[in-house]
Amino acid sequence: MKCVNQLLLAGAFAVASSAQANDLNQVIDSSSEINKSALTSQNKIDAISDNMQSRLQQFRTLNKEIEGLVVYNNQLDKQIKNQLEEMAAINASMDQVSVIERQITPLMLRMITGLEQFVTLDVPFLKDERANRIAKLKSMMDRADITSSEKFRRVLEAYQVEVEYGRTIEAYTTLLEVDGQEREVDMLRIGRLELLYVTKDSAKAGSWNKETKQFDALPNTNISQINKGVRIARKQLAPDMLTLPIQAAQ
Prior knowledge:
The chain is of the alpha+beta class and about 250 residues long. Among the domains are: about 100-165; about 170-235, no CATH class. It has helices at about 1-120, 125-140, 150-165, 225-235, and strands spanning about 170-180, 180-190, 195-200, 205-210, 215. It has a five-stranded antiparallel beta sheet with strand order 1-2-3-4-5, with helices on one face. A hairpin with a 4-residue loop joins strand 4 and strand 5. Helix 1 (about 1-120) packs across helix 2 (about 125-140), helix 1 packs across helix 3 and helix 2 runs antiparallel to helix 3 (about 150-165). The chain is rod-shaped. It starts with a helix and ends in a 17-residue tail after the last helix. The model has no long low-confidence stretch (mean pLDDT about 85). This is Biopolymer transporter TonB.
């Protein structure tokens, strides 16, 4: 009987142990499933967190770009405003240029006419050269391929040349009627103060008379000084004192 009881107890213990083992396995399996589920959830959470961080970084980057674009656009607005103001000023200037251009053409024509009259009344030196210069100015005024500014520059340049004549000394060779005969002579111009000539053979000399508008013969005693002046003007002699007949200023 005792043995039977021991067997029953052993069997019950075995059954209980087996039941406990099964329960433990179930608990372990459940725990494992929970861990797996938790790991999966954590992975999803990490992925979502990483995605949110990435999007946040993108958001911050875009905000910085937007701020930069706002500053850039504001600067462009200022530049465009300034350019529009400059364009308005240029348009106004162009309108003024058109007005000035219409006024300057008659002015240049009057200046050329005045220059021509001055040359006609002036001491008759380099007559062909000065007449050609005025003729070119007149022809230039009819040309459409030359701007008004260039025309005005050339007119002023012609005036400047005439001004320079008044403060320079010059010698040149030309043909002149002397005693009814055309002869080759050396002309000596001293500013606009005096215009003298001496024949190539140094036999005759004369000076321009502003009153009679013709050359007056000079004594032979002046010839050496005129020849000296010619050589000085041609830079063949160093500048020196000259003794020449000078007409009194009126």
